[in-house]
Give the backbone structure.
Amino acid sequence: MSKELRSWLFLVILALIWGSSFILMKKGMYDESGGQVFSDSQVGALRMAIAGLVMLPFGFMNLKKISNWKQVAYLTVVGTCGNFFPAFLFTFAETKLSSGLAGMLNSFTPFFTLILGFLFFQQRIRLKQVIGLMIAFVGICILVGILNDAPVEISLLHVSAILLATLMYGTSLNTIKYKLGEFKSLEIASLSFTFLAIPAWVVTFCLNTGSVLRTHEHASESLFFISVLSVFGTCIALLLFNQIIKLKSPMFASSVTYMIPIVAVILGVFLNHEAFHVSQFLGMLVIVGGVYLVNSK
């Protein structure tokens, strides 16, 4: 299989995983009746703590790969900006924003990736990239109904949380590509989580998560969904994400955020029997066209 085909295949798989993550976050926070089980902070902490525990053995095996403190600093940037803080920011945002709007705001990641690459990593900005980003963003607006007068709940604080998370994603993406080129995907993922494992478990216990596990009747069910989110939506997704960056570029990898709303709509149709409109199909076509334009040579 060619490198180009592998890149697109990994991108689609990653979109499927992260598209499902928005649903898993909700299921980690609330039971079937809509009652809260874990708080947004507890879900974020558990997600990072479990992922850190899963990746810890691999991290210890790869510690010998580190040769200087600069690499430690860059790996810490990837861990904190690419995973730790966004995990809390996204669960906080989902307490007030719909999954559709959260997915749309997540698509700002390519914008920040492009801008930060230009400002700090000497990457050129091509007009075609800017046009492609704008086209894809319009497609997302159509897909989630923003341009169809659909009612959307807006909270400036929660919107800002996602925008801050996407800024951090852009930072992590560029750091992986331009500062950690000597590391493999598994090495980056495992080492960055190794540095986060202890802080994540400390935060988990400080948030009194144990009392919820002991007393809430739906805690074990919610913990199951959070565990699935940690293993697939964090560990495996990060491995795929890092591999895409290695195969192509940060801009191509960040394009996954444009594909996530498509996955969310498709899952809504098949799992929740939601209606599918012609405008949503149009939005999907526009998104794919924009993503192709951004990444075409």
User: Anything to note?
Assistant: Residues 3-295 form one domain. The CA atoms of residues 116 and 122 lie 9 Å apart.
